[in-house]
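Sat 14:20. Reprocessing the chain from the morning session after the first attempt stalled halfway. Input below, unchanged.
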Amino acid sequence: MVKLEEQVKTLGLKAGFDLVGITSANSFERDEKASIERIRSGLMDGLPWYNEERVTKANRPRVLLKEAKSVISLAVSYNTREYNDQKTMTGKLARYAWGEDYHNVIKDRLHNFVEELKVLVGEDIKTRIFVDDGPMNDRAAAERAGIGWFGKNTNILSQNYGSWVFLSQVITSIELIPDQPLLKTCGTCVICIEECPTEAIVAPYVINNTKCISFLTIELRGSIPIPLRHLMGEWIFGCDICQDVCPVNRKAVVSLDPNFSRLHNVSTMDLISLLDLSESEFNTMFKGTAIRRAKFAGFQRNICVALGNIGDQATVPVLSKVIESDYPDLVRSHAAWALGQIGSSQALKTLKSQADLNQAPDVLEEIVSAIKAAEA
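Finished this time. C-alpha cells:
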C-alpha cells in the first residue's frame, strides 16, 4: 500500500509542481531569531511591512492555522530558456518576471492541489496556502522539508533545479510524516558574495536589503542612492547576478513551463522605446506580470539609470524629453543623472537649460549634480 505521504507528493507533481516536501508545523525558531536580529540591525530598512510582528507569524505555522499539524512545501522551476540578443541598449529583467505573475499561476495550482488533497484524505481538512505574499517563511519551510538548502545569497538551492524555483506552502491539519532536511551546504564557495556589485551580501546568509539591486529596482519608491546607481548596470527590474554566478545553477534543469516563458521580450526592446511609454501603455503592456510591482515611475526611473550606465549619446534626445516634460519628478531627476553620466555637449546643454527653470528641489539638486559630473 502506498503511504499517504507519497500520495500527497504525487498529487503535488500532478498539480504542476517540480518538488514536494513535508515538514512539521513546529515553529522555525532559528529563522525567527535571525530575522528579528536583521530588522533590529537595520538590514531590512525600506520594507516597513516586514516588521517583528510579521516575522513572528511567519515562523509559527500554528499561529497562521491553529489546527496545523504539517506543512507541505512545493516548488516549481522557472528556469526557462534565454533569448540570444545582440542589441546593446536593452535592459535586464530578473528571470522570475519573464512570464506571468507567479503568484496567480501558483495559487491556481495550489487550489487544485488542495481540492485533490481533500478527496484523497476523504475528510474535511483545514488548509491555508501561501505564495510569497503572506506572513509565511517559505524558505525556512522549504529547507526543513528537504526541498533544498540555504545558499549564502539566502536563496534556497535545490539539487536539480538550483535556486530557480518559486516556493509555496500548504499548512494543513493532516498529520504527515515529515521529510528530513538535505545534508548539503555551499561549503567554502563564496562566489555570490564576491560577485554582488553593490556588496549587498554582507556575510554568508545575510543581505543588506538597502543595497540589493532587487530592492532598489522594485520595492524602493523614492530616489536610488547616487553611490549605488553606477553599480546597477542595465538591471531595470530585479537582479539575478547572485544566481547567475552560482555553480549549482549552472547545472540546473531547464524548465519548459509555458507560464514562465517570456510574455514580453523586453530584453530585445530598446530602452528608449520603454522610456517613451505612457503610464497607461505601461499598465497595459505588463498587465498580469510581476513587472507592475515596480510601478510606472519606478520602472521609468530604473530605465534612466540603465541608460546612464550604458552611456550612449544616442539616448540624449529621449532623456532630454523626459527632463523637459511632465514626467514624474522621480523620473526627471534620474534622467538628469543619466545625462550627467553621458556628459556630451548636448546633454550638458539640456541640463543647463533646465537649471534656470523653476524646478522641484530634488530635481534641481540632481540637475546641478549632473552638470558637475558632465563638466568633470
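The first helix runs from residue 4 to 14.
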